From TrEMBL, chain A:
Catalytic activity field: Cleavage of peptide bonds with very broad specificity
Claim: Transit peptide is one of the keywords in the record: no
A Pfam family recorded for this sequence: Proteasome
Name under which the protein is recorded: proteasome endopeptidase complex
The organism's taxonomic lineage, starting at the top: Eukaryota, Viridiplantae, Streptophyta, Embryophyta, Tracheophyta
EC number: 3.4.25.1
InterPro entries in alphabetical order: Ntn_hydrolases_N, Pept_T1A_subB, Proteasome_bsu_CS, Proteasome_sua/b, Proteasome_suB-type
Protein's job: The proteasome is a multicatalytic proteinase complex which is characterized by its ability to cleave peptides with Arg, Phe, Tyr, Leu, and Glu adjacent to the leaving group at neutral or slightly basic pH. The proteasome has an ATP-dependent proteolytic activity.
Enzyme class: hydrolase
UniProt cross-references to PANTHER family, sorted A to Z: METALLOPROTEASE TLDD, PROTEASOME SUBUNIT BETA TYPE-7
Species the sequence originates in: Hibiscus sabdariffa (roselle)
Gene3D superfamilies, A to Z: Glutamine Phosphoribosylpyrophosphate, subunit 1, domain 1
UniProtKB/TrEMBL annotation, chain B:
Key words, A-Z: Cytoplasm, Nucleus, Proteasome
Superkingdom of the organism of origin: Eukaryota
Protein name according to UniProt: Proteasome subunit beta
PANTHER family (UniProt xref): METALLOPROTEASE TLDD, PROTEASOME SUBUNIT BETA TYPE-1
Function: Component of the proteasome, a multicatalytic proteinase complex which is characterized by its ability to cleave peptides with Arg, Phe, Tyr, Leu, and Glu adjacent to the leaving group at neutral or slightly basic pH. The proteasome has an ATP-dependent proteolytic activity.
Family membership noted in the UniProt record: Belongs to the peptidase T1B family.
Length: 344, 223
C-alpha cells in the first residue's frame, strides 16, 4: 500500500501515517481498506484544534494512492451523514442508466382491484392477470392476499412488492394477536403498511386496497405506494381503476345486500378486464363479514380460450441431421483373463 | 436543472398482429381488429387489411395513421399504373413498389410493419415480409406486429421448410391444404391473444385463390 509514499508536508501528517502503520497487522499481509484509513484520518482531524491541520489532511488524502484496482477519486470524500436516508445507490443507478446499463424490468400486475362496504361488511374484488410489459406472464394469479382471518388486502403494482409487503404485515399481525390475545383490527394493518411504504419513499411500488371487519365495524382503506391512505366506502386501484370507478360511481349506494354487492364488484372488475389492457382473465371476489370470510376464487370466468383445433398439433423434431461423425474418446482397454491376484 | 430532452414523438404504436401464409394455389392473410394506444382500447373493430390489387392484399400493424397514408399512396400509384399499362399490378410488382415507397422515407419512416400476400403470375401463393424502411423478402409465411414474437416460432415449427443445405432445394410455400392453413392461422391468433395484451377482439381472415378473394371473421378474447 502506498501510504508510505504520501506527501508528508507537516509533522502532524507524519503522526497520522504512524497511526496508520500501527493499524496494519504485521502478521497478515493485507491492504488497509480505504474506509479504515478515512476513519483514522478523520479521528485525527476531529481531535486537532487547528484549522490548518484539516487543510493539510485534505492534501494528504489527495496524494494518497492505493495499489490494485481501487482508485481514490480526486474530490474530498465526505463521511456519510449520520441517520436519515442515504440515496447513494440512486446516484449510482442514474450513472449506470446514462451508460446504458438498465435495471432489470419488474413484473407489474397491470390490474384492476376494488373494494366496497355493504350492509354486513366489506367485499373485495380483483382481476387475475399479471403482465411483464406487453406480455401476460400469469393468466390466473391471486391478487387478494390474506392478512388476518378477518382482514384481506388486494395488491396492485409490482407483484414482488405487493406479495412481500402483505406477507410481512400478515406475520406482524399474527405476532401482535399472540401478544394482545385479541382479534386484529384493520387500522393496525393500515398503520403497519403505511409506515413501511413511507419508509421506502415510494420505491416499494405497492398500491393496496385493504378491507376487513373487526370489533369496531367494517373498514375499507386504500394505500398508495408513497404511504398515504384514504378511508372510503368504495375504492379502486391499479391501471383499470378508472374503468372500475366509473361503474362504482354510477351504481353504488349505501346499504347494499350481499348479492347486490357481489354483483356490483363483479361488474366493476369486468369493466376493468374488458376496457383496460393491463387487466384480464378472471374475477376473484372476497366477502368479509362479522361471521367470517368467503373467498370466491375465480367467481367469474368470462374469457375462455376462443379456438382449439380439434386435431391438435404435433411437434416433430425438425433439426435435420446433415452429418454424423463418431470419434471415440478413449481407446478400448483389453481385459486380460485370469486376474486372481486379489484373492490371495 | 438536468438537461431536458424532447418528449414529443410523432409516432404512436396502435398494436396488433398480422400473419400471412402462402400455399400452392392460395394465400391466407390475417390480422386482428383491435386498435389500442397505451393501455386503452380505441376500437375493437378496425381492419388492418387492405386490398391493393386484384390478387394482392396487404396487412400492416404499427402506427395506423402512417399505415393509412401508405395505403392511400399505394392506391394512387396503382391507379396510375392501370392507366399507363391497361392492366392490374401483379403481386411481385406491388411488392417492389411497396419497398421503394418505404425506402423513399428512409429518414422519417412510415411506422408500419407490413406483410404482403397474394398470387403471382402463375397463380401460386406468395408472401412478402417487410421492415419499416422497405427491406423485403419473398417467403412462405410471415408474421409482424406485437404478437409476432409469439406467433413466428410456432409457424417456424409447423411450416418451416427443411434446411436449404439439403438437396434438392425445396420451396418455401407450404404443402398444406387451404382449410388446414386457415385452421392454423386461427389457432395461432387464439394463442397469441392469450399472452399478448395488444392482440384480441376479432380476427379478420382474407383468403385469395383462383376464384377470387374471400373474407371471414372469428371472435378472439376481449380482455
Amino acid at each position: 500500500m502506498a501510504v508510505e509514499q504520501a506527501n508528508l508536508c507537516t509533522p502532524q501528517d507524519a503522526a497520522v501515517v504512524r497511526t496508520l502503520r500501527v493499524f496494519r497487522d504485521p502478521h497478515v499481509d493485507r491492504e488497509l481498506e480505504p474506509a479504515t484509513v478515512l476513519i483514522i484520518i478523520t479521528k485525527h482531524v476531529m481531535s486537532s484544534p487547528s484549522l490548518n491541520f484539516q487543510t493539510q489532511i485534505s492534501g494528504l488524502i489527495l496524494s494518497l494512492s492505493f495499489s490494485g484496482q481501487r482508485n481514490m477519486s480526486n474530490s474530498v470524500i465526505e463521511v456519510p451523514p449520520k441517520g436519515g436516508f442515504s440515496f447513494d445507490l440512486c446516484k449510482r443507478n442514474e450513472m449506470l442508466a446514462k451508460k446504458g446499463v438498465n435495471p432489470p424490468s419488474f413484473r407489474k400486475t397491470g390490474t384492476t382491484i376494488v373494494g366496497l362496504v355493504f350492509q354486513d361488511g366489506v367485499i373485495l374484488g380483483a382481476d387475475t392477470r399479471a403482465t411483464e410489459g406487453p406480455i401476460v406472464c400469469d393468466k390466473n394469479c391471486e391478487k387478494i392476499h390474506y392478512m388476518a382471518p378477518n382482514i384481506y388486502c388486494c395488491g396492485a403494482g409490482t407483484a414482488a412488492d405487493t406479495e412481500a409487503v402483505t406477507d410481512m404485515v400478515s406475520s406482524q399481525l399474527q405476532l401482535h394477536r399472540y401478544h394482545t390475545g385479541r382479534e386484529s383490527r384493520v387500522v393496525t394493518a393500515l398503520t403497519l403498511l403505511k409506515r413501511h411504504l413511507f419508509n421506502y419513499q415510494g420505491h416499494v411500488s405497492a398500491a393496496l386496497v385493504l378491507g376487513g371487519v373487526d370489533v369496531t365495524g367494517p373498514h375499507l382503506h386504500t394505500i398508495y405506494p408513497h404511504g398515504s391512505t384514504d378511508t372510503l366506502p368504495f375504492a379502486t386501484m391499479g391501471s383499470g381503476s378508472l374503468a372500475a370507478m366509473a361503474v362504482f360511481e354510477s351504481k353504488y349506494k349505501e346499504g347494499l345486500t350481499r348479492n347486490e354487492g357481489i354483483e356490483l364488484v363483479t361488474e366493476a372488475i369486468c369493466s376493468g378486464i374488458f376496457n383496460d389492457l393491463g387487466s384480464g382473465s378472471n374475477v376473484d371476489v372476497c366477502v368479509i363479514t362479522k361471521g367470517g370470510k368467503e373467498y370466491l376464487r375465480n367467481h367469474l370466468q368470462p374469457n375462455p380460450r376462443t379456438y382449439t383445433n380439434s386435431k391438435g398439433y404435433s411437434f416433430p423434431k425438425k433439426t435435420e441431421v446433415l452429418l454424423t461423425k463418431i470419434i471415440p474418446l478413449k481407446e478400448k482397454v483389453e481385459i486380460i483373463e485370469g486376474g486372481d491376484a486379489m484373492e490371495e | 436543472m438536468p438537461k431536458q430532452q424532447a418528449n414529443w414523438s410523432p409516432y404512436d404504436n396502435n398494436g396488433g398482429s398480422c400473419v400471412a401464409v402462402a400455399g400452392a394455389d392460395y394465400c391466407v392473410i390475417a390480422a386482428d381488429t383491435r386498435m389500442s394506444t397505451g393501455y386503452i382500447i380505441l376500437t375493437r373493430d378496425y381492419s388492418k387489411i387492405c386490398k391493393l390489387a386484384d390478387k394482392c392484399v396487404m396487412a400492416s400493424s404499427g402506427f395506423q395513421a402512417d399505415v393509412k397514408a401508405l395505403q392511400k399512396h399505394l392506391a394512387a400509384r396503382h391507379l396510375i399504373y392501370q392507366h399507363q399499362h391497361s392492366k392490374q399490378m401483379s403481386c411481385p410488382a406491388m411488392a417492389q413498389l411497396l419497398s421503394n415507397t418505404l425506402y423513399y422515407k428512409r429518414f422519417f419512416p412510415y411506422y408500419s410493419f407490413n406483410v404482403l400476400g397474394g398470387l403471382d403470375n402463375e397463380g401460386k401463393g406468395c408472401v412478402f415480409t417487410y421492415d419499416a424502411v422497405g427491406s423485403y423478402e419473398k417467403v412462405g409465411y410471415s408474421s409482424q406486429g406485437s404478437g409476432s414474437t409469439l406467433i413466428m416460432p410456432f409457424l417456424d415449427n409447423q411450416l418451416k421448410s427443411p434446411s436449404p443445405l439439403l438437396l434438392p432445394v425445396q420451396d418455401a410455400v407450404t404443402p398444406l391444404a387451404e382449410a388446414e392453413a386457415v385452421d392454423l392461422v386461427k389457432t395461432v391468433f387464439a394463442s397469441a391473444s392469450e399472452r399478448d395484451i395488444y392482440t384480441g377482439d376479432k380476427l379478420e381472415i382474407v383468403v385469395i385463390n383462383a376464384d377470387g378473394i374471400r373474407r371471414e371473421y372469428m371472435d378472439l378474447r376481449k380482455d
